[in-house]
Amino acid sequence: MRFLILGNGSKPYVAASAERLAATVTAAGGEVALMDLERQADLSCVEADLALVLGGDGAILRAARQMGFKQVPVLGVNLGRLGFLADLTPDEAIEYLPSVIRREFQLTEHVMFNCSLDDAGNSKDILGLNEVVVRAGPPFKMLDVELAIDGDVVARFLGDGMIVSTPVGSTAHSLSAGGPVLGQELPAFVITPICGHTLTSRPLVDSADKTYTIRVRQAEGAWLVVDGQDCGPLHSGDRITVRRAPVSFRLVKVPGKTYYQTLREKLRWGTTPNYRTEQESP
User: Domains, the chain, ranges and CATH?
Assistant: First the structure.
């Protein structure tokens, strides 16, 4: 089995952990096809079976963009804070790698998107995994945006912006804005208004096989953000189109690590309150 080892070598512990993992891969009979800790390598010409991505969820999003339309299954090694997509600590990754090389794991497939910005006749395409955000920037005036799905106008939103998120991204910015948690393997998108200036503004979930178009009606200070990366200012009349990408993000899941377990342990979802025992009561 051939491995990519990816991460940001300027971050603490990444370079040292990468060397440990590379040594473990070799000792277990695998091969390191490429180690890129500067995030500059062209991965389109590298043949690999699996990518070890070191860092937090941001490192995984960066790796997905770097792989482009040649997605390699990812095993995330958490060296960040939350690590929602990165299941394993470096020590756990070293423990599991021999079984991974024997292909004793499951692969889950997840929706990616292609975001197209039509700006006065100029078009720019961006591949992403988490979300597309149209948000207010300086001077922080209320935005006026219109959403259409497959050409059918759905709603007009006034507020701080709008998020179009994949199921993977539903536990990121969309969740913070009041959006629902989606099962990560659903073929769907969720549209979440940001601070809508109305009592009736609610998130919407619809099929990933549809086309979502956001028309910016009033955009002083508006910005386009994809997967947490600023992609530039928006202007009145701009259109952002979001479609399912022709490739999927594939995540390696080892035994004992499940999505709902991660929700409970890292986001404290669905857990009961910590009631004081009778002995602790005053």
Answer: 2-105+254-267 (3.40.50.10330), 112-246 (2.60.200.30)
> What span, in angstroms and rounded, lies between the C-alpha atoms of 28 and 181?
38
pTM: 0.90
Name the average pLDDT for the chain. 91
Q: How far apart are CA 110 and CA 120, in angstroms?
A: 32
- Phi first, then psi, for residue 252 (nearest 5°) are -85, 125
What confidence score (pLDDT) does residue 230 get?
84
**Is-contact 4 36, C-beta < 8 A?**
yes
Structure tokens at 42: 């062209």
Estimate to the nearest angstrom the gap between the alpha carbon of 177 and the chain centroid.
16
Reduce the DSSP state of residue 249 to 3 states and report it.
strand
Sheet containing 161-165: order of strands: 204-207, 188-194, 161-165, 131-136, 222-226, 229-233
Q: Are 230 and 253 in contact (CB under 8 A)?
A: no
**Residues 160 and 136: beta-carbon distance below 8 Å:** yes
For 27-66, write each residue's pLDDT tens digit. Answer: 999 999 999 999 989 898 899 999 999 999 999 999 999 9
Taking residue 122's Cβ as centre, other Cβ atoms within 10 Å add up to: 7
Strands 2-7 and 31-36: parallel
Q: If we measure between CA atoms, which residue out of 146, 186, 191 comes closest to residue 168?
A: 186
**Residues designated as active site:** 57
